[in-house]
Amino acid sequence: MSVFLEPFAIPLFEDSTVVDDFDCSSVFAAGFSPMDGGDPFADHHHHQTLMSSAVMSTQVVPDQPPAEVGKRRFDADDEAAGVSRSSKRRRRRARSSTSCSPSDSGGGEGSEAEAGERGGGRSVWVRERSTEWWDRMSDPACPEADFRRAFRMPRAVFDKLCGDLGAAVAKEDTTLRAAVPVPQRVAVCVWRLATGEPLREVSRHFGLGISTCHNIVLQVCAALTAVLLSRVVRWPDSPAAAASRFQALSGIPGVVGAVHTEHIPIVAPRENAGEYFDRRLTDRNQKATYSVAVQAVVDADGAFTDVCIGHPGSLSDAAVLEKSALHAQCEAGLLLGDDGHGQPLWLVGGASYPLTSWMLVPCTHPNLTWAHDNLNERVACARAPALRAFRRLRARWRCLQRRAKVKLSELPNMLGACCVLHNLCERSGEELDADVDLLPHDKLVDDGVITGNAGCSSAQQTDRDRMAHVVLHAGNA
């Protein structure tokens, strides 16, 4: 876990002892002062005596270290001037306090808060920032439409989210300042993910420091992933009910989820950049692009039921699937089997996924029959909720529309938080506003590597052919 620091406090004044370089003019000034009416010619002999004593003091020990030589030289200077070092230090501190006082200089944007009597009565300077925008949004009288437009969710969902994360993100007050309240901390993170605005804009809207906003976003994203990901992104409680919804949508019996892998652009990492180089996005964007893969299983309502985040973008969709826990669980028969009536359960995927005993993909071999063409159309209908879910995910949380400028170690938490918030909005029936643009269909495509018929057994092809005929006859009936 990262250590998140509270908002920083800068001491206004620091104790310091500045020792000036030795200057002969200071020794000469000690001999006479024009303000005192002294005669420089009468004190000439005294000046010569002071100069000789200062020079003699530097030659007492010829092999003495330079630091000691300088110290003795300053002692001789102070003694000749008749001024002690402590009194000089007090005068210097008094001048600094007088010249730097906020009350004398107009105060600026800051105010001083006393930090106690320790340390010679030091004070802490805190910049005052406007919280007008957040005060208006947090007011219960704020219109619901304005709140939804700002945070992409209704106030009821936001309040429940704050209650679920309260224990994980709350901070205690300190002697210097009060802690940022939980609703404001959650709002900082949600607004940052929803708008994708830079941290300086987050700071301006919420009246917090830039570094404070950065730490809050990281902490809330980590809490969303650790506390709510397993509760919100979960496998269907009733696979048979999920299959019936897909059958009504596509006509294919036994489908419980649609699989899709999306690549999120990132800034080129400092280490192992070649593993994250995305050739498909590079060819499409006409510039070098790096990405991480997000694989998800989506139900018929557009909610995520399983996610796999963080694999390098250079991997194909089939490679990401093979490395995911979903593949291991399906191969072991832990997620898919039958619906209790002898009907096998399936996942559907695009042509970039392999045909297996639990994954149904389109037919890609030449000379397709009518049954195969019909099956491909039905598979496309079954995959539509997955493509629509990713379009809505990236449209609602605009931070995913541009290159993610966070560390690779922090990126899974941010992407997991977006998936959690997506499910909360989808299951609450929240619709996107009319001014929120969805990504075009061509922005969400498979990686272009056709593996649907590669490496599959004859038994798997026979099962798909049987399914094609079943779907064809069911459609004609």
From TrEMBL:
Signal peptide (residue range): none
Keywords for the protein's UniProt record, in alphabetical order: Hydrolase, Metal-binding, Nuclease, Nucleus
Reported cofactor(s): a divalent metal cation
Domain of life: Eukaryota
Ranges annotated as biased composition (Basic residues): 86-95
Stretches for region Disordered: 63-123
One Gene Ontology term of the molecular function aspect: metal ion binding
GO cellular component: nucleus
Domain DDE Tnp4 residues, every copy: 263-423
Pfam families assigned to the protein according to its UniProt record, in alphabetical order: DDE_Tnp_4 (PF13359)
Plastid is among the record's keywords: no
Keyword Nuclease: yes
Localization (cell): Nucleus
Family assignment from sequence similarity: Belongs to the HARBI1 family.
Protein name as catalogued: DDE Tnp4 domain-containing protein
Organism from which the protein derives: Oryza brachyantha
Taxon lineage: Eukaryota, Viridiplantae, Streptophyta, Embryophyta, Tracheophyta
